């Protein structure tokens, strides 16, 4: 563990990596990763939803694994690598998942979307050809109240195909309804 | 260059058709999508300002108590605390409906539910504000709680609100459209049924948040996650803070889900505004998830009784419907919700004689208000299960029985609702065919079943919430010499895609690309008034307003382009970022040139458009709730599997056909249909606002884990058919899709459960315990039913008799001279969105003239 200096007010210095860049914050030990990302680092893409680890809106990836950042204490991030939604696009070039979610309307209000994108990204990296049930399992911890999840499944399937290098297109019925 | 189909020489409209629609009706990425998938969208809780303070609310631990004393001195002394507020500091009441302005930002004399805000603190950090709450001492004189509508009927004391009509019943109505007894006499068969629809909450992922700033030039700016910035601006902040509306600016941030839960002006929004004015510093509040449960304004629990007379072929001869709503601690939209439980029964199947009796009760629980469908999913559940039983009694197929008695297009119903286009027949046929209904209904093995239900919903409330003659929606258009188009409109995107609707229609009307259009919305200083995102009004009303503004802009451009090209203006077509002669497409110019040409001759180009709904046909008290410029229609078939051992109901698939009139962007339409089905499924199977049975009416499960909502595991497959039967009142014929598709889902599931295992669950949620109880009852030869057993006696007011149109009625009540035509042409807006404020209503508001 790197040297950690806590000053008089009991704050702790934490060094870690966010979206590939080194960061260092000095925070009370009970401050969560979610609060650090939003308040100390200004990365407001990750969202509060329930403060109790029940909704998934705060999902980020820690060393590749999806975690609920509202349940991760800041000091435990020392030396870890965090990935948030802000790190998914390359400049103006959307990540395939972002492109598929945008094209299919899998983001309606968009509040749950960052958490779902990161959970889905981890899924595809572990399993490049996820079945519909595997997608449901992977995203069961991410609540969404707008979409009914169906466009989310279709967007994950579409993005996975793109990421496998296939020239996939959404089914016509997916956006126009059955004939 | 646009494809050169031969343009029609003379008729302008056909010119537009000649170049088939390029944007409207074509699936495209929503204009708000890129920001949402990159986390760039700025929600209210994402906003930060320099020197910003944080506010927290102290909430009542008692369901019903008088406030004897509030001592905030120790809290005020805590280091970091900058201001403390109690009810005394904000004495002016407010509320969304003029007839029930019964709320205070902080309780003044009484608390009426566990969670009712009592005091507020602003401090330099949220932790300090939270700590300060514990230092505020409140002395309560605890009162007995009213825990159910039945108690509200019987108990005069304690009175939750003095303006309640009878004991703790806030409001009652008794409306008769024709003689139902005569109708029952003509019937071959009469059936009575009882239903109960449990309350549920919106559970939007985003907790409510607001930020206020009071600037040295005496202006107040409030950012808030609200669905109705106009009402928050004019009806609450200006009133309560006693600051002229002209000095207040409300900016509605994109809502992280609304569903009706953010359409009341809220305590915390008024509180942060006051704290900002007191401290001179920006003040921000974000509610915790538990606080969002107490805010509520969700689905009313409703007990319902219905009696219907039918002929042998299923034709309805008369219907008598009663509803009792558990309203909670405050009025909210409740009076309108009550009227809605009796309004839309007549817009699907013909009902020649109709009687509706409704009552809303005050109880010491978080206040109920509008949730997706606002007061219509409950009666629709009752009606569609009731009709399923009638079909079985008459040995008719439920689908055929409905197809035979649909309301014809262009009908005026018994309760004076004007039905324009009605694609319900096509919807029923689509889902019957798609689901394999004919080979499944009553033919699947035990444990599997299918159920059918239909519904209808408004395309926007026909009248504004506070009665006035001003437009209900307005748009300003700015054409820039760079070729860009900016649409300014007060509408608020709550995830339903209202920004994309504006961009799509503007691009279509002016022939530019979506990327050339900039949309500025929901800012009371920058954008003209739109009443808000509720009752599925936004596409229809902002769309029509935008069409008017765009036509005026085209007029200006066409005049100058026609002169330059020596072409009659009506032959000009706007398409492919060009303005050209429809009969000779090469003869034209780029849109940007046309703008520059016109600007040079005409001056800066800016146009406005606005929209007013058609006058309501009904003129009786309560007639203002239900009218709409158009009605959408849906039909759904649900296929379920019921495990007789556990009682667990699994909905495998839902086929739904929705008459949307005309898609503006099919991507948004499909999302709204699937999202509506999801929310209907949650209410059908698992969602309930559950309270402890004891006197201390505490919410049992105020958290997202205990309050069950469907995850990816529980959501069913969906097969969606979009029926496009354009309505003349809709922009490009478009009707609503945001709420309608929710309505048929709970009854279709209940009917499918009956088809699967032969038990009737006449209430939602249809939980395993209820299914098992009914199965055991059936095994013992009992009624095989789980549901309410009685409707309580209610002292209904004297009936308001309104002869239906076919009995010579003119929309007004008999013997009600005040309202009848009498003096010349009836005043345009004589009926009101909500009943005329009774003299004894709390501080009846002065009418906006």
How is this structure best summarized?
The complex is a heterodimer of chains A (179) and B (849). Chain A is α+β, with helices and mostly antiparallel strands. Chain A has 6 helices and 5 strands; from the N terminus they run E-E-H-E-E-E-H-H-H-H-H.
Describe this structure in words.
In chain A, helix 2 (96-104) packs antiparallel against helix 5 (150-163). By secondary structure, chain A is α+β, with helices and mostly antiparallel strands. Chain A has helices at 33-40, 96-104, 113-126, 132-138, 150-163, 172-176, and strands at residues 12-18, 21-27, 59-62, 65-68, 81-83. The relative contact order of chain A is 0.14. A five-stranded mixed sheet of chain A has the order 2-1-5-3-4, sandwiched between helices. Chain A is elongated, with a radius of gyration of 18 Å. Chain B is an alpha/beta fold. Chain B has 20 helices and 32 strands. In chain B, strand 19 (473-479) and strand 20 (485-489) form a beta hairpin. Chain B starts with 11 loop residues before the first helix and ends in a 48-residue tail after the last strand.
Strand-pairing-aware structural class of chain B = alpha/beta
The number of helical segments of chain A is: 6
Beta-strand portion of chain A reads: 5-15%
What's the rounded overall pLDDT mean of chain A?
95
What structural category characterises the helix and strand content of chain A? Answer: alpha+beta
* Spans where pLDDT lies below 50 across 5 or more residues of chain B: 1-16, 819-849
Helix content of chain A: 25-40%
End-to-end Cα distance of chain A, whole Å, is 61 Å
Tally the helices of chain B: what do you get?
Answer: 20
Radius of gyration of CA atoms of chain B, rounded to a whole number? 27 Å
Anisotropy-based shape of chain A: elongated
Quaternary: heterodimer
Major sheet of chain B: size, sense and barrel closure?
7 strands, mixed
Number of beta strands of chain A: 5
Largest sheet of chain A: 5 strands, mixed
Q: Taking strands numbered 1, 2, ... along the chain, how are they ordered across the largest sheet of chain B?
A: 3-5-1-12-9-10-11
- What general form of chain B does the structure show? globular
């Amino acid at each position: 563990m790197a040297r950690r200096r806590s000053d008089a007010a009991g704050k702790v210095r934490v060094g870690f990596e966010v979206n590939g860049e080194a960061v260092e914050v000095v925070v009370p030990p009970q401050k969560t990763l979610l609060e650090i990302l939003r308040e100390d680092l200004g990365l407001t893409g990750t969202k509060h939803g329930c403060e109790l680890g029940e909704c998934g809106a705060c999902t980020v990836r820690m060393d590749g694994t999806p975690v609920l950042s509202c349940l991760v204490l800041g000091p435990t991030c020392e030396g870890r690598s965090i990935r948030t939604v802000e790190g998914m696009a390359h400049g103006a070039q959307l990540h395939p998942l972002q492109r598929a979610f945008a094209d299919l309307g899998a983001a309606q209000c968009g509040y749950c979307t960052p958490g779902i994108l990161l959970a889905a990204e981890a899924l595809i990296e572990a399993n490049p050809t996820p079945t519909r049930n595997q997608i449901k399992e992977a995203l069961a911890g991410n609540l969404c109240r707008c979409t009914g999840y169906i466009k989310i499944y279709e967007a994950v399937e579409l993005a996975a195909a793109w990421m496998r290098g296939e020239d996939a297109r959404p089914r016509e019925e997916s956006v126009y309804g059955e004939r | 260059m646009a494809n050169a189909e031969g343009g029609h020489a003379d008729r302008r409209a056909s010119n537009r058709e000649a170049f088939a629609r390029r944007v409207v009706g074509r699936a495209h990425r929503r204009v708000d999508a890129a920001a949402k998938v990159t986390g760039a969208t700025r929600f209210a809780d994402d906003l930060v300002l320099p020197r910003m303070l944080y506010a927290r609310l102290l909430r009542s631990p008692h369901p019903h108590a008088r406030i004897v004393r509030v001592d905030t001195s120790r809290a005020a002394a805590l280091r970091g605390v900058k201001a403390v507020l109690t009810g005394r500091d904000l004495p002016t009441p407010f509320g969304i409906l003029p007839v029930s302005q019964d709320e205070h930002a902080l309780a003044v004399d009484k608390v009426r539910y566990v969670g009712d805000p009592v005091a507020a603190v602003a401090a330099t950090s949220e932790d300090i504000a939270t700590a300060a709450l514990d230092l505020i001492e409140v002395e309560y004189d605890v009162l007995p709680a009213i825990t159910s509508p039945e108690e509200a009927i019987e108990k005069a004391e304690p009175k939750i609100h003095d303006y309640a009509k009878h004991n703790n019943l806030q409001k009652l109505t008794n409306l008769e459209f024709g003689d139902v007894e005569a109708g029952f006499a003509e019937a071959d068969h009469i059936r009575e049924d009882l239903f109960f629809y449990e309350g549920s909450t919106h559970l939007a992922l985003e907790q409510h948040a607001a930020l206020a700033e009071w600037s040295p030039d005496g202006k107040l700016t409030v950012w808030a996650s609200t669905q109705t910035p106009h009402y928050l601006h004019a009806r609450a902040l200006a009133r309560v803070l006693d600051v002229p509306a002209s000095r207040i600016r409300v900016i509605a941030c994109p809502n992280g889900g609304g569903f009706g839960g953010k359409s009341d002006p809220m305590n915390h929004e008024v509180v942060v505004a006051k704290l900002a004015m007191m401290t001179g510093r920006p003040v921000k509040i974000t509610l915790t998830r538990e606080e969002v449960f107490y805010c509520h304004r969700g689905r009313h629990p409703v007990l319902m009784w219905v009696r219907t007379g039918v002929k042998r072929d299923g034709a309805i001869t008369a219907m008598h419907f009663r509803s009792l709503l558990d309203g909670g601690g405050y009025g909210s939209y409740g009076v309108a919700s009550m009227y809605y439980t009796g309004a839309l029964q007549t817009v699907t199947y013909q009902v020649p004689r109709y009687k509706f009796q409704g009552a809303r009760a005050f109880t010491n629980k978080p206040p109920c208000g509008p949730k997706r469908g606002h007061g219509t999913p409950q009666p629709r559940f009752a009606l569609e299960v009731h009709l399923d039983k009638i079909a079985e009694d008459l040995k008719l197929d439920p689908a055929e029985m409905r197809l035979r008695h649909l309301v014809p297009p262009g009908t005026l119903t018994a309760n004076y609702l004007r039905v324009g286009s009605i694609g319900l027949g096509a919807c029923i046929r689509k889902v019957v065919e798609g689901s394999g209904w004919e080979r499944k209904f009553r033919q699947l093995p035990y444990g599997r079943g299918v159920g059918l239900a239909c519904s209808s919903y408004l395309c926007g409330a026909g009248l504004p919430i506070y009665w006035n003659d001003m437009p209900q929606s307005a748009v300003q258009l700015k054409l820039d010499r760079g070729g860009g188009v900016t649409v300014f409109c007060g509408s608020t995107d709550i995830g339903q895609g209202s920004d994309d609707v504006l961009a799509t229609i503007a691009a279509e009307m002016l022939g530019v690309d979506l990327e050339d259009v900039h949309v500025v919305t929901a800012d009371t200083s920058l954008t003209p008034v739109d009443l808000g995102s509720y009752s599925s009004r936004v596409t229809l009303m902002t769309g029509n307003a935008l069409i008017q503004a765009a036509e005026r802009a085209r007029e200006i451009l066409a005049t100058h382009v026609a002169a330059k090209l020596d072409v009659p203006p009506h032959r000009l077509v706007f398409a492919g970022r060009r303005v050209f002669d429809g009969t000779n497409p090469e003869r034209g110019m780029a849109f940007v040139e046309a703008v520059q040409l016109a600007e040079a001759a005409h001056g800066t180009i800016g146009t406005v458009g606005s929209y007013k709904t058609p006058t309501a046909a009904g003129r009786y008290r309560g007639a203002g709730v239900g009218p709409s410029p158009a009605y959408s229609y849906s039909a759904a078939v649900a296929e379920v599997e019921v495990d007789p051992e556990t009682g667990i109901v699994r909905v495998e698939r839902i086929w739904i056909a929705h008459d949307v009139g005309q898609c503006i962007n099919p991507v948004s339409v499909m999302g709204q249909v699937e999202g509506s089905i999801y929310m209907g499924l949650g209410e059908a199977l698992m969602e309930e606002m559950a309270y402890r049975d004891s006197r201390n009416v505490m919410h049992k499960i105020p958290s997202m884990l205990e309050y069950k909502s469907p995850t990816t595991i529980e959501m069913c497959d969906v097969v969606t058919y979009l029926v496009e039967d354009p309505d003349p009142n809709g922009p490009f014929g478009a009707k609503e899709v945001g709420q309608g598709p929710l309505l048929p889902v709970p009854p279709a599931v209940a009917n499918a459960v009956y088809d699967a295992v032969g038990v009737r669950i006449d209430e939602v949620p249809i939980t395993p315990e209820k299914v098992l109880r009914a199965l055991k009852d059936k095994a013992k030869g009992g009624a095989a039913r789980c549901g309410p057993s009685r409707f309580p006696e209610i002292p209904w007011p004297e009936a308001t008799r309104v002869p239906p149109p076919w009995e010579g009625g003119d929309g007004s009540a008999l013997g009600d001279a005040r309202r009848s035509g009498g003096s010349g042409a009836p005043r345009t807006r004589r009926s009101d969105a909500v009943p005329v404020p009774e003299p004894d209503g709390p501080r009846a508001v002065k009418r906006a003239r």
